[in-house]
Description:
With 178 residues, the protein is mostly helical. 58% of the residues lie in helices and 9% in strands.
Amino acid sequence: MDSTQSFRFFNRGPSAAARIIFFALLSLLLLFVDARYRHLESIRNVLALPIQSLQRLATNLTSQPGILWDQFSDYIDSQGNLARENMQLREQHTTYATQLLELQVLQAENEHLRKLFEVSQHADFPMQMTEIVYLERDIFKRKVFVDKGSQKNVVAGQVVMDETGVVGQVTRVISVAE
């Protein structure tokens, strides 16, 4: 054998040209028989089922990138919308938390005032409400400065009370011009 020739496993059978001519004549004969007598219609229907499945698969594969791109863009859009909605909800939560804190402070102050009012309702002696202006930080002195003075008939020796009971006694009264 020559080194330029390829090694052939199968040396038997007709040549390539003879095979082409044979299959061309066979296909023309099948076309004629099918067109004339319709004998191959049942065979065509049987063969159409798997071919139709392959055709659908090929159609799906060619349209799949477009579908995937649409789904991906929908996903990105929904992620953006969720992020914006999340930011709005966080801002709303901050606003509501601030309002809730203010409400809790007002409720505590309201409860404190109700207790003070209840004390003044049950007292058998004259009382007047004052506001604490300054509270000294020294824990040993415990001095409290209030906004009433001698113009409001506060005198040294009077009892100082809050909603829990007696807090102390007035030690000095300053005359303040209003």
